[in-house]
Amino acid sequence: MMILSKFSLIPLTVHNCFLHKRRTMIILLFIVIIYIVYYAFNAIRASKSVPLEFLKYQRLLKENRLSRNICSVPRLDPWDRTILKYYVKPQPLHCKSLQNNVTALQDGVLTVLPEYRDKLKCRCRTFEHNTGVSDSEVKYDDWVDVVSNEGLRITKEFVEVECYNNGLLSSKVYSYHWNQIIKRNTSIITKRPFRASSISRPSVLMFGVDSMSRSNFIRTLPKTYAQLQKLGFVDLLGHVKVGDNTFVNLGAMLTGKRSTATREFKNELPDEWNIYFDDWPFVWKLFSDEGYVTFFAEDRPDIGTFNYFGWLCGFKFPPTDHYFRPYWLASYWSLLFRRSTPGCYSGTPAHSLQLNYLSEFLTKYAGTRSFALHWTQDLSHDYLNAINVADEDYERFFIENSSSFNNTIVIVFSDHGHRYDAIRETIIGRLEARLPFASILLPKEFVMKYPHTLIALRENSEKMTTQFDFYTTLTNIALGHFTNADSSNEIRRAYNLLDATPMMRQCFEANIPEDYCPCFHEMQLNVKESEEAANELLNFINARLEQSNENTQAAPHIKDGFVCSKLVLQTIEYASIRIPPVKLVRDPQVAGKVASKGVEISYRVVIRVKPPSKALFEGVVVKDLMNNVWKVSGEIERNNKYGNTSHCVFDPLLKKLCHCISASA
């Protein structure tokens, strides 16, 4: 038997160790190769999920120095076919009353209704902002009995009422939270008297609805929108958000500064949790300094802009003269509110509570300089269509308060479009998320004194505007600066919307991060790249002409004995493409998922056809890259004179297209 010493095993041990390391290296290398192949495959698959034609033109666009240096914000169709299935009209809001109406608060006096004065014993306590302590809880006063036959003068804006049976086994049968406007003569902010409004110092009302694109506003609030149009509001058709959420967009409107950093832009205000906002440069402070009474009301105390889930601390001191948060803190968490139908406070729609508070403010401060910010989230933040239940109430508000607008600049706006719903799977939905609603009304007497403001506003309504522009506009209103300044040759982040501004403006200049830039890009094409689009346009025109040749007694299109000649392409005079930014097709806001619908390229082509017509036509042809389907969009233009060559047709469109020839030719 051979005995091996421990020294004789060393070479074998070293050899085994080497083999073990080698096997480990091979396994690790194999894992790395699998990892690389897997992610390369996913990258290829992801790139292929974006249409190759789109990628080709994106590449050409980057290489093309002649592409137009202007932001082209698309004009969206609220009823675009790709998003229609996401619009569902909700059932009307029916608020079931959970208790009898026992008390009333009118003209500052709380009373028990006559039929309950002998049956119930009631008490109340006023409450207010817990000034100097917290914005997350209210400060209650002591309970006070309400003498049934006399009523009780309430000297604060918010009051809680409870009523009990008169029997031996007394039990609570009624509870409610009331609110009112207690008119002040001096500001709690500046301690100075309020000043009278005038044509040169109009009041300002900002009426905001969370998560509303312009298209969704038109879809879900049709009666309200019709009333705004009747009053003379001017829509900002190219209004763009400057950040993802309410905090950054509302912050930009109210402070003129960026509160959240992005890849391109630093934050200019603290972007932290657990902070108070009393020291922020809100525009309402400027209005206070100029003798305005100020107002801020925001529903949903849990997700408030400056109190979000308690991670933000709000205001240690009331930010405005009238501040509605204490009311919501007390009522929203009450047992009665929790038991009520969603969207209701017992038998009253919850949104009406804040609307009524605003209406009372406008009435009581008529003739006084006022700045009001009304912000609602409850119905629109989480649901695309639910806001429709408030349409008639909003319409009624703008009708009943229209006299208050005689010396008030009114801004109806949103922070951004909807960010969560399935509509984000479409290109239109992703665009809507970037294009919030914004519309402005200027008083008639104000326009008569400063006519340039309405001219400038209408011109600016066709350009790209941002939330930063609102702050600049508001500061000029607060200071009474309406001097017809011309800023059209200046390049800066924000402009006064009541002055002339530049036509050519890019997202970066306007401080809009690339992820939220909605600008489509246009680039000229050569003839070869545009042949298919040109032929699609010509085929569409010829199809219309062929229909016109099929005369009927019910709908005659053409004179007897004549036909429209078939058109034949001679030359392509001009062609360009207009494509969406890549961040819309593969949206970082939805984990880079490629849009399932609406990935389109628009071709603008100008074609000349052969004699006898020799017509010069211009039109837009859209190609759906996901389905390889073409369609002609908008109106076809005739770019050269055609005299009497279309004498045989009656339709205005056919007049531009048809070249009449004898049917026997």
From TrEMBL:
Pfam families: DUF229
Keywords: Membrane, Transmembrane, Transmembrane helix
Any one cellular-component term (Gene Ontology): extracellular space
Transmembrane intervals: 24-41
CDD domains xref list: ALP_like
Stretch forming the signal peptide: none
Gene3D superfamilies linked to this entry: Alkaline Phosphatase, subunit A (3.40.720.10)
Origin superkingdom: Eukaryota
Name of the featured protein: Uncharacterized protein
Natural source organism: Toxocara canis
